[in-house]
Amino acid sequence: MKLQNLNIIIADDHPLFRNALRQALNNAFQGTNWFEADSADALQQVLDDKAADLDLILLDLQMPGSHGYSTLIHLRGHYPDIPVVVISAHEDVQTISRAIHYGSSGFIPKSASMDTLKEALDAVLYGDIWLPEGTEILEVDDDPTSQMASKLSDLTPQQYRVLQMFAEGLLNKQIAYDFGVSEATIKAHATAIFRKLGVRNRTQAVIALQQLEMEKVDLS
């Protein structure tokens, strides 16, 4: 692959970080088209329009609408041909191990130098997995968190967005208005979400989603 004229999304809710990252990488990846997203919903909007042309997604695990690993899991389930690199301030081996287990093509600490960042993206764009030097990935058990991750990956993009809105506390009529559809359509989505997640109602669905928050992960 010739590493120029790429299409890359920077998904992070900090505008200063997105700007610094884009400027630092412009010279390394000439002619790159940069797309930015400051939330999980904004990321989905870019994907709806540009997915077929994207070469890479740089993903922060903690931005509005994301619940820990949920956005990563969703991306790997529905856009398997687009490599995702997690860029995170959480640099512990547990977080890195989960990210790789859920399909990330690399993990770059936000504390990394720009030279390291370029090295990492070079590796991923050539098809390799990149990890911080000296990282030893832990085995991730088939625990309730992993089981829920598998169920979450079965949701369609629209169902995933409805579930995110449930987590925000929005009512069916509010979600229907945002989607431009009827309340009956949202109720149908809800029924499908509950069935796929193995839950009975909205509250249980939101609790299930919250299992993927990073602070609730324990590999010990």
UniProtKB/TrEMBL annotation:
Q: Which Pfam families match?
A: GerE (PF00196), Response_reg (PF00072)
Ranges of residues in domain Response regulatory: 7-125
- SUPFAM superfamilies, per database record: C-terminal effector domain of the bipartite response regulators (SSF46894), CheY-like (SSF52172)
Output the lineage of the source organism.
Bacteria, Pseudomonadati, Pseudomonadota, Gammaproteobacteria, Alteromonadales
InterPro entries according to UniProt: CheY-like_superfamily, EvgA-like, NreC/VraR/RcsB-like_REC, Sig_transdc_resp-reg_C-effctor, Sig_transdc_resp-reg_receiver, Tscrpt_reg_LuxR_C, WH-like_DNA-bd_sf
The UniProt keywords, alphabetically, are: DNA-binding, Phosphoprotein
The name of this protein is LuxR family transcriptional regulator
Gene3D superfamilies (alphabetical): 3.40.50.2300, Winged helix-like DNA-binding domain superfamily/Winged helix DNA-binding domain (1.10.10.10)
Q: Where is the HTH luxR-type domain?
A: 148-213
Highest taxon in the source lineage: Bacteria
Please list the residues that carry the modification 4-aspartylphosphate. 60
Q: Does the keyword Coiled coil apply?
A: no
The answer to whether keyword Nucleotidyltransferase applies is no
- Origin species, per record, is Shewanella japonica
